[in-house]
Design goal:
CATH class: Alpha Beta
CATH topology: Spore Coat Polysaccharide Biosynthesis Protein SpsA, Chain A
Helix content: 25-40%
CATH superfamily: Spore Coat Polysaccharide Biosynthesis Protein SpsA, Chain A
Shape: globular
Structural class: alpha/beta
Strand order of the largest sheet: 10-6-9-4-1-2-3-12
Number of domains: 1
Number of helices: 10
Length: about 290
């Protein structure tokens, strides 16, 4: 697996794949977990993209790491409006509240997955945008294989001011195995119950507090237990923080090396192993919109 992929080759691959493959029927209900901090600038755009998917979702779970009560009220109003005007009654919306004191990458992800009612759970950020209307369907089809525990794709950036796209994948030390990223992935909840994202990881590896790494740890654990993890270019997203081009490049380079060092430490953990989540023992603050 290469650390970078040429954009033209990627587009050629997609077009050939779509011509060659017949449409897969999706009979599984899907929960989407969107992690956000308040109402992000393009959250409404993400909802429109989710609504247009060929594989329709049945449940949307928004984990909001809210700043204050005013921002939380804005989120409630936003979700109510979106349900009324866009998603209608076919999609259940849950709002999961997460304060700053409670937030960790690991806990916020576990909190969202714990609230999912379906076996297939798609995890993403509020600034991750599907590349096509068949994005979700392309990811879900891999679960026809019962040995698949998770599916992920690439994530690339779009900088509108320069009209350029930088295609990248944080591969770090990984060379020959695929790994999921909670920027954009689908997992089986039953496998998550076997091994939740490890909330002890920051205690074992301090860098995990800032950079997460729970998704890489989860991937290695699934592989050690004999399950499959798939990387599909068709199940990819545009992942952008709307920064100008140069600061974003510098940030990504810095993070690339930081994530690489973090993954090297995670690779040294014994397998298989046990993980910890406090989700089942803490009060869940969940609202149905």
């Amino acid at each position: 697996m290469n650390s970078t992929i040429d954009g033209k080759l990627f587009n050629d691959y997609r077009s050939k794949s779509y011509r060659a493959e017949m449409k897969h029927e999706v009979d599984s209900e899907i929960s989407i977990v969107v992690r956000t901090r308040d109402v992000e600038n393009q959250l409404d755009h993400l909802f429109k993209l989710l609504k247009s998917q060929t594989a329709q979702i049945s449940q949307l779970i928004v984990v909001d790491n809210y700043s204050n009560e005013k921002k939380l009220d804005e989120m409630r109003n936003f979700l109510s409006r979106e349900k009324r005007d866009l998603l209608k009654e076919q999609v259940q919306i849950k709002l999961v509240l997460l304060s700053n004191d409670e937030f960790t990458h690991q806990y916020s992800t576990n909190l969202g997955v714990s609230q999912a009612d379906n076996e297939l759970v798609c995890i993403m950020n509020a600034h991750s945008f599907p590349i096509s209307s068949s994005w979700l369907e392309d990811g879900v089809r891999h679960f026809q294989d019962p040995e698949v525990a998770g599916v992920s794709g690439f994530f690339y950036q779009s900088n509108e001011s320069f009209g350029k796209k930088l295609f990248y994948l944080f591969e770090g030390p990984l060379k020959n195995i695929d790994w999921i990223s909670t920027i954009n992935c689908i997992i089986r909840k039953s496998k998550w119950k076997e091994y939740p994202f490890d909330e002890n990881l920051p205690r074992l590896i301090p860098e995990a507090k800032k950079y997460g790494g729970e998704d890489y740890d989860w991937t290695l654990e699934m592989l050690s237990r004999g399950y499959k993890v798939i990387l599909d270019p068709k199940f990819s997203v545009i992942h952008s923080h709307n920064r100008s081009l140069l600061p974003e490049i510098l940030r990504n380079l810095r993070n690339y090396f930081a994530y690489g060092k973090l993954r090297e430490k995670i690779k040294k953990l014994d397998r298989p192993r046990e993980s910890f989540t406090g989700v089942n023992y803490s009060e869940k603050k969940t609202e149905i919109i």
